[in-house]
């Protein structure tokens, strides 16, 4: 299987699906720093862990419903073309 545009697109969609199905109550709340909001001083940037948590939350919020038609399209495409 050669790495093409479709394979790259499919890998991106699979990674987005993996992020979107993470359950906050079961998995993410057990990670340190997930639940609370941290107050930073003026001019201080949040740490890498906080940025990753914010990225996961934003991906879950924004990509939840657009991924449904994309997944349907990929499933139909795989059924037709193998």
From TrEMBL:
GO BP term, pick one: endoplasmic reticulum to Golgi vesicle-mediated transport
Q: Does the keyword Membrane apply?
A: yes
- State any GO CC term: Golgi membrane
Entry keywords, A to Z: Membrane, Protein transport, Signal, Transmembrane, Transmembrane helix, Transport
Q: Where in the cell is it found?
A: Membrane
Transmembrane feature ranges: none
Q: Which Pfam families match?
A: Yos1 (PF08571)
**Per the annotation, which location comes first and is thus the protein's main one?**
membrane
Q: Where is the signal peptide?
A: 1-18
Q: Which PANTHER family match?
A: IMMEDIATE EARLY RESPONSE 3-INTERACTING PROTEIN 1 (PTHR15858:SF0)
Family the UniProt entry places it in = Belongs to the YOS1 family.
Relate the protein's function as given in its record.
Answer: Regulator of endoplasmic reticulum secretion that acts as a key determinant of brain size. Required for secretion of extracellular matrix proteins. Required for correct brain development by depositing sufficient extracellular matrix proteins for tissue integrity and the proliferation of neural progenitors. Acts as a regulator of the unfolded protein response (UPR).
Q: What is this protein called?
A: Immediate early response 3-interacting protein 1
């Amino acid at each position: 299987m050669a790495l093409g545009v479709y394979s790259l697109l499919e890998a991106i969609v699979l990674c987005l699906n993996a992020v979107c199905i993470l359950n906050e109550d079961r998995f993410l709340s057990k990670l340190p720093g997930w639940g609370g909001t941290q107050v930073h001083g003026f001019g201080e940037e949040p740490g890498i862990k906080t940025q990753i948590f914010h990225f996961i939350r934003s991906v879950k919020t924004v990509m939840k419903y657009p991924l449904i038609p994309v997944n349907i399209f990929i499933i139909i495409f795989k059924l037709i073309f193998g």
